[in-house]
């Protein structure tokens, strides 16, 4: 007998429907799985046998062939276990009422005792099922919330037996919630800006970067507050919009990092990988293409502390996502595109010893070593930095602590200004200023003809590339939004040019 069930597979950060065809025929007892099945799928043979037997079902003593279609799509993972088990029962006549199986997708890993375990990427799998026109889905009990975000009618089964009784109409389960309950906006945890004394220029640049999603570099000697300032950005980020929350949650679901108790991520991601990270771990890839830190920072922040300690090839791999907002992973069987629209925050010392150009301490690095160190940040990558601040040690007698003056401004008032500026951008153009395309530099978006002429003159004066000029205009637009101005003026442009990239000392 032949039976067919429906499951789904992960491809990048998206789901793809998979038809599970099961044939039970006369012959020597065997269970064969075909259709470019990886090692984890092949191991399903033992899991399914044990789960069926320990759930009170019979494993047919016949030749069982399982085909995962489309056969040219590589398949890995443990999410096909439930679909294979149900297909075997239907093909062997143990599930008499199986004519409606094409209307129910099945996803879940089987334990040897028949219990169902969650699998990574349920949110993307549910979206694939929905797009295929399948209205229902059976998933492990802990994954109902993830499936609900995709808009399918999800049933959470605890065991294989419970799923079979539901499919047979003997014990119909109640579906999960039709939609997730509204969750409160959140922010990632981070240091408070009040801990940063002085450094007004860097603080202002950070506020602009977070408000308009612009890339920022802080360069300066050790212990000056670069890391503390950059990490405080986590508490300034506005919450994710609904569509952004779904996109980010899907990435985290595929990566296996989603908290199933709150399956919809509301806080903007804030990723801070160590400088020893590999290129694949940073931008994604591997034998099973999975999102890297760049994709995990989608719609949030990617912080590269001690940036020049990162591998040069890893840094250059960020050029594509910084420009296009995605990473393309090419393989023999095709290319996959992973979303990676993040705000880059970078901080580093000007030389290996950290004191080059500092008036308070002499640099001990040779010129050649300092040049090689600075060359890790290539010219094309530098051209994609919107804001560049060279920080200096504050004079101790002028600090607020020494003078007993008003304490530094904390994160809450800055976050409030950022939220207002962010809302202005959404209301005006539906996207962050950093994503505003050059053809929209017009009066409708606050760019008067006189401003564009001034921008062209300043660009020629400072030798700015066209990309650099466009990024400067976007920064000026964010400065105007922070000031509550509808039109970008020369004052806003002057402040944006103040943060243009300079040569390392």
Total strands: the figure is: 16
Q: Give the full name of the CATH homologous superfamily of the largest domain.
A: P-loop containing nucleotide triphosphate hydrolases
Low-confidence region ranges: 397-404
Overall mean confidence score, pLDDT: 90
Q: What is the CATH architecture assignment of the largest domain? A: 3-Layer(aba) Sandwich
**Distance between the amino and carboxyl termini:** 76 Å
Gyration radius over CA: 28 Å
Main-sheet strand order equals 11-12-15-10-16
Counting structural domains, the number is 2
The fraction of residues assigned to DSSP E strands is: 15-25%
| CATH secondary-structure class of the largest domain | Alpha Beta
CATH topology group of the largest domain: Rossmann fold
Biggest sheet layout: 5 strands, parallel
| Helicity, as a percent range | 25-40%
Structure notes:
This protein is of the alpha/beta class and 505 residues long. The chain folds into 2 domains: 2-167, Ribosomal Protein S5, domain 2; 193-498, P-loop containing nucleotide triphosphate hydrolases (Rossmann fold). It contains 20 helices and 16 strands. It has helices spanning 39-42, 44-54, 81-91, 122-131, 144-148, 160-167, 200-212, 226-231, 242-254, 279-283, 293-296, 312-316, 319-324, 367-374, 379-382, 400-403, 411-429, 449-462, 466-482, 490-498; strands spanning 2-11, 14-25, 30-34, 63-69, 104-106, 109-110, 116-117, 136-140, 153-157, 216-219, 270-271, 301-305, 326-331, 334-339, 343-348, 387-390. The strands form 5 sheets. The chain has a 5-stranded parallel beta sheet with strand order 11-12-15-10-16. Helix 5 links the parallel strand 8 (136-140) and strand 9 (153-157). Helix 2 packs across helix 3 (81-91). The longest helix is centred in the last third of the chain and has 19 residues, at 411-429. It is elongated and about 85 Å long. The termini are far apart. The model is unreliable at 397-404 (pLDDT under 50).
């Amino acid at each position: 007998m032949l039976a067919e069930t429906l499951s789904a597979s992960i491809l990048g950060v998206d789901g793809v429907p998979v038809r599970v065809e099961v044939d039970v025929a006369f012959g020597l007892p065997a269970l064969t799985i075909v259709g470019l099945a990886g090692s984890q799928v092949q191991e399903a043979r033992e899991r399914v046998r044990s789960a069926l037997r320990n759930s009170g079902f019979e494993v047919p003593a016949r030749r069982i062939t399982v085909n995962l279609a489309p056969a040219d799509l590589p398949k890995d993972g443990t999410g096909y276990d439930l679909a294979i088990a149900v297909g075997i029962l239907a093909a062997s006549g143990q599930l008499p009422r199986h004519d409606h199986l094409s209307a129910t997708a099945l996803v879940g890993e089987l334990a040897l005792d028949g219990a169902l375990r969650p699998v990574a990427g349920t949110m993307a799998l549910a979206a694939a099922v929905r797009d295929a026109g399948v209205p229902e889905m059976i998933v492990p009990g802990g994954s109902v919330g993830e499936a609900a975000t995709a808009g399918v009618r999800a049933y959470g089964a605890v065991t294989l037996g419970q799923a079979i009784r539901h499919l047979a109409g003997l014990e119909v389960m109640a579906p999960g919630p039709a939609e997730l309950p509204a969750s409160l906006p959140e922010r990632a945890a981070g240091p408070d800006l009040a801990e940063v004394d002085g450094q007004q220029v860097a603080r202002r640049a950070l506020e602009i970067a977070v408000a308009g999603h612009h890339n920022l570099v802080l360069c300066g000697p050790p212990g000056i507050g670069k890391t503390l300032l950059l990490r405080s950005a986590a508490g300034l980020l506005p919450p994710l919009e609904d569509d952004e929350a779904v996109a980010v949650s899907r990435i985290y679901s595929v990566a296996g990092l989603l908290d199933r108790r709150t399956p919809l991520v509301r806080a903007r991601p804030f990723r801070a990988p160590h400088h020893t990270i590999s290129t694949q771990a940073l931008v994604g890839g591997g034998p099973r293409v999975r999102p890297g830190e760049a994709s995990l920072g989608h719609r949030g922040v990617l912080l590269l502390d001690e940036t020049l300690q990162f591998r040069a090839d890893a840094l250059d791999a960020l050029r594509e996502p910084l420009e296009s907002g995605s990473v393309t992973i090419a393989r023999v069987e095709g290319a996959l595109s992973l979303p990676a629209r993040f705000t880059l925050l970078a901080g580093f010392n000007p030389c290996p010893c950290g004191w080059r150009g500092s008036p308070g301490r002499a640099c001990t690095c040779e010129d050649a070593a300092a040049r090689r160190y600075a060359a890790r940040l290539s010219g094309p990558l530098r051209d994609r930095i919107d804001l560049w601040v060279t920080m200096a040690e504050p004079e101790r007698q002028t600090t607020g602590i020494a003078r007993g003056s008003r304490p530094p401004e904390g994160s809450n008032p800055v976050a409030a200004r950022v939220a207002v500026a962010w809302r202005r951008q959404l209301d005006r153009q539906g996207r962050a200023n950093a994503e505003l395309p050059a053809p929209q530099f017009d009066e409708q978006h606050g760019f008067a003809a006189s401003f564009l002429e001034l921008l062209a003159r300043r660009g020629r004066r400072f030798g700015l590339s066209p990309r650099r000029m466009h990024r400067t205009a976007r920064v000026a637009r964010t400065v105007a939004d922070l000031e509550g101005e509808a039109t970008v003026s020369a004052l806003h442009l002057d402040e944006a040019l103040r943060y243009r990239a300079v040569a390392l000392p």
